[in-house]
Structure formats: C-alpha cells, structure tokens
Design brief:
By secondary structure, the chain is of the alpha+beta class. It is built from nine helices and 14 strands. The protein is globular and about 55 Å long. The relative contact order is 0.19. The C terminus is likely disordered.
C-alpha cells in the first residue's frame, strides 16, 4: 500500500498493488470491503455484489417441450465448444495500431485515464434504447466507438467497415458458500472469460449500441459462459502447464482488448474518513485492458496498454454525448 503526497486541493492518492493472480473484478471489492465505510464510518453493505439473485430457467410445460429444450441445449453446447476452440486457434483480429503485442510484457506501459461520466447518463441512454438494453451494453458500445475513432485517426488505410476487433471479458460466477463471510453465493475468482465481437465496424453510435445489446443478449442466453468455464477446468487438468500457457498466449495474440466493467457502491464511500472521489484498476499486460469501475453514481475508466506510441485515445466522452 502506497500513500502518495496530497495535492494542493487537499486530496491524495492511495495505491494498492496486488498481483492479478490473487483477484479479479468483484473479488477486489471484497478485499477492500473491510476498510470502506459510509460517511458515518459504518461498514458498507456489499452483500448485493456477493449474493446476486439467481436467474433460474422456467420449467418446461410438457414432455415434448422438455425434449426440444434438451436437444437445442445440446446443440448450443456443441456450438459453443467449437466456437471457443476456433477463437483460440484460428480467428484473428484486424491488425491495428490500438494494440501492440510482443512475447514479453512491455516495460513502458501507458495508462490513459478517460473522462469520468455520470452513471445517470448511461442509464438515460439505456432507457431510451429500450428492448432490454443493459448498462454494460452501453459501456461496451462506448468503448467500441473509442477504438473505431482511434483506428480512423491512426490507421487511415484500414477499411472501418471490415474492421474486426474482439475482446475478452471476465465474468465472475457464483461459488460455494464462504465460511468467512457467510455469503450464500460468492463471486470471487471463479471466472469465465468469453471472447466476443466488439461492434467497431458499425458507423453510428446507435448501430454500435444495438449490436452490443444483441451480442450480450446472445451470450446471456447461450451456453457460452458455462461451456467456457468447463473447458478451462478440463484443459487445466489434462494439459501440461506449458501447453496451457501456449494456448493462453495464442488467445492473447488474436484478441485486441480485455474489457472489465465492475459495479461498485452507489453511495458516497470513504476510507480512513476521506471520501473516495475516483477509483481505477491499472493492469499492465500484453494487450490493452479497459477497466471500468462505477462508484457513487460515476463511472471511472482507464485503459492500460503496453508498447511505445500506442496509447489509447483520450476523448471517449464524445461517444457518450453523441448517444445521449
């Protein structure tokens, strides 16, 4: 833990350095939970993050309907298995300047802090879009617009209509009851990391938002996440470590960015009596990582990227304003 010198306005910065292997996304909020309080010094209730409402599948109304569900489910699992394996071995994103990959992590990493925007703005866009659009869909489309504009500015020879960019998105899944915290379902490091297409080929913010919603709707209503988790567990047990590492490296060479969107406390949050005004997750890696954290009605985002001269764009706010 590092406490940096206070600024002239009385604020300061606390830097927590944690190895990525110890936690991801929501797990970090659980780790920080004991030191986070409300304005009166009372510990925050973070149970809504670790005790999510289960989303069950309604039972089939008849035997034929159950049989059809079993068949379509089996087909969906088979499709997801093939898609997951193809993503690792065959598919490859467009070669663009936004991403710089090398065999070893770069030491001259660049982190760009994007303008903070109001969560209420994102909700207005979500509500205006309707059709079940989620906050994550809006943020996903926003980042797709960021990459598209950066590519238009720095890769003039790239055909934007044929631009192909995929991202890895860690999704925390429930675990068994934790004896320490007594949470009924715990979201920690049991993560699936589906690889999904970003709508960077869409020309307008509305088109990107519609495509983002369609993409995540397919993910939520398919076997992609449980299948991916099962494949991770299976190959982790049967493959030698060197082979698993090679598979991960191959995936990282073919994917453009990691997209992580973590919901935080909705009320003013304090540490040691000082209000937290912003929170960022800076994660250096061999490909750019877009980290979003919502806190007290605001969304804070940074993009960490490796390699000289490949810093991401600094103006993502325009895509929000354009869609609002």
């Amino acid at each position: 833990v590092h406490v940096l010198r206070e600024s002239e306005g009385g604020g300061g910065t606390v830097l927590f350095k944690v190895h990525h292997a110890l936690g991801d996304g929501i797990a970090f909020f659980e780790a920080l939970g004991p030191i986070m309080t409300d304005a009166h010094g009372k510990p925050l209730d973070l149970s809504r993050f670790f005790n999510p409402q289960p989303r069950g599948i309604p039972p089939a109304k008849s035997l034929p309907a159950a049989a059809v569900r079993c068949v379509t489910g089996a087909v969906d699992v088979a499709r997801c298995v093939v898609k997951s394996l193809v993503s690792i071995q065959l598919q490859k994103d467009s070669s663009i300047r936004f991403k710089r990959w090398s065999a070893q992590p770069a030491f001259d990493n660049v982190t760009v802090y994007l303008p903070t925007h109001k969560l209420e703005t994102i909700k207005r866009i979500k509500n205006a879009a309707g059709n079940g659009t989620a906050i994550n869909d809006v943020e996903f489309a926003l980042n797709a617009g960021m990459i598209r504009r950066f590519t238009a500015a720095h890769d003039p020879t790239v055909d934007l209509a044929r631009l192909s960019v995929r991202c890895m998105t860690p999704l925390a899944l429930p675990e068994e009851t934790c004896e320490e915290t007594k949470y009924s379902t715990v979201l920690r490091n049991r993560c699936a990391v589906p690889v999904v297409d970003m709508p960077v080929d869409k020309a307008t913010p509305r088109q990107r938002l519609e495509a983002a919603h369609a993409t995540w709707d397919r993910v939520k209503n398919s076997a992609m996440v449980p299948t991916g988790l099962a494949l991770q567990a299976f190959f982790g047990k049967v493959l030698p470590f060197a082979a698993m590492r090679d598979a991960v490296v191959k995936m990282y060479t073919r994917v453009t960015i990691v997209f992580s969107n973590v919901p935080g406390p909705t009320e003013p949050t304090y540490v040691a009596g000082c209000q937290i005004t912003a929170m960022h997750v800076v994660a250096g890696n061999v490909l750019p990582i877009a980290s979003l954290v919502s806190l007290n009605g605001e969304v804070h985002q940074c993009v960490s990227a490796g390699g000289p001269g490949c810093g991401p764009p600094r103006g993502a706010a325009g895509d929000v304003a354009g869609r609002a």
